[in-house]
Amino acid sequence: MHFFPHLYKSRHDVYYFRFLVPAWLQGTIGKAEIRKSLGTHDPREAAALFGESLAAKTPCI
After folding, report:
1. Residue 57: CB partners within 8 Å, gap ≥ 6?
2. CA distance linking residue 28 with residue 50, whole number of Å
3. CA distances from 53 to 5, 19, 20, 27, 38 (A)
């Protein structure tokens, strides 16, 4: 999926949501990235789940 920058497909064809943690927050969170399996092989379903995951991980400003 080239048009979703936080959506990646594993070598097993499962889609993942991947969010890079800003450098200033990495010490607090203890991770450089947050990665979550979307549990699907279907790109359309992954795109829908991607929107939900992005909304849950990104704070509203």
Report:
1. 17, 19, 34
2. 25
3. 13, 10, 13, 22, 9
pTM to 2 decimal places: 0.65
Distance CA 27, CA 59 (A): 18
Q: Strand pairing partners for 16?
A: 8, 37
Residue 31 vs residues 44, 48, 61: alpha-carbon distances, Å: 29, 25, 22
At 61, the pLDDT band (50, 70, 90 cuts) reads very low
CA distance 56 to 35: 13
Element (H, E) at 15: strand 15-20
Of residues 1, 33, 10, 20, the one with CA closest to residue 48: 1
